[in-house]
Specification:
6 helices; globular; 100 residues
Length: 100
């Protein structure tokens, strides 16, 4: 799952850094087959509430999109999100433990 904001950020990054078409095509296939992109309209209203819960306001869209998604966990390495001490916000290491 990614928020519209993250999706846009990745697309801008690929374009800005001149990634060759295979990288862009791989991302497009990933979006179409493996990822749920949560539209901003679905999480926009929750973003303000999430801003109150998190130190880095720039991460509020990630938390808001997660809350609106059907995902079981938010897997992240972001310390501000992990500091929420929410059992559904986990590290990659913890996610791998759960999968094995």
């Amino acid at each position: 799952m990614v928020s519209d904001d993250v999706d846009l950020e990745v697309r801008k990054f690929l374009k800005k850094h001149g990634y060759p078409q295979p990288a862009s095509s791989t991302y497009e296939r990933l979006v179409k087959t493996q990822m749920e992109v949560v539209p901003k309209a679905e999480y926009d209203a929750q973003e303000a509430d999430c801003c109150k819960r998190i130190r880095d306001k720039n991460d509020a869209h990630v938390l808001a999109a997660f809350k609106k998604s059907s995902c079981d966990y938010l897997v992240t390495g972001d310390n501000d999100l992990l500091a929420l001490n929410d059992p559904k916000v986990i590290t990659t290491r913890r996610a791998l433990q759960l999968l094995t």
